[in-house]
């Protein structure tokens, strides 16, 4: 199994980061402006993307100041099926240390590399959004 991992410090409190990860406005602020999401444990997030024929589907498994977890439950994209995204949030003197992992990939071949690159870019947009409150999603509506 392959795994994507990133870690960075965000100069914002954990509750602001949780809001960015567990609300429709939050997801639209850093990831994609095309999102259908009620938020909260048990909800299904449906982020859409300009080049994707259908939205992704992610089940929210856990939401707390220390951790947010999602599981890919849809059939699209097929390489995401059954994978798990985990955000671990640890307070620091300057804000919050965010440890990100996207686990359960069948292989590190094929679309894995481009997904890892995209998550790296998304970590930057999440950081900017959480620190400034200014929405600038990597995937704006188009």
Automatic annotation (TrEMBL):
<protein>
    <submittedName>
        <fullName>Uncharacterized protein YndB with AHSA1/START domain</fullName>
    </submittedName>
</protein>
<dbReference type="InterPro" id="IPR023393">
    <property type="entry name" value="START-like_dom_sf"/>
</dbReference>
């Amino acid at each position: 199994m392959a795994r994507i991992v990133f870690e960075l410090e965000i100069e914002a409190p954990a509750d602001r980061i949780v809001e960015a990860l567990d609300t429709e406005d939050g997801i639209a602020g850093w990831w994609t402006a095309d999102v259908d999401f009620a938020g909260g444990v048990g909800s299904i997030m449906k982020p859409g993307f300009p080049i994707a024929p259908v939205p992704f589907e992610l089940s929210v498994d856990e939401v707390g100041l220390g951790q947010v977890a999602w599981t890919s439950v849809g059939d699209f994209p097929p390489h995401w099926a059954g994978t798990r995204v985990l955000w671990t949030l640890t307070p620091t003197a300057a804000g919050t240390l965010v440890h990100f992992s996207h686990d359960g990939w069948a292989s590190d071949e094929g679309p894995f590399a481009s997904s890892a690159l995209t998550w790296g870019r998304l970590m930057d947009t999440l950081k900017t959004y959480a620190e400034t409150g200014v929405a600038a999603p990597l995937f704006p509506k188009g």
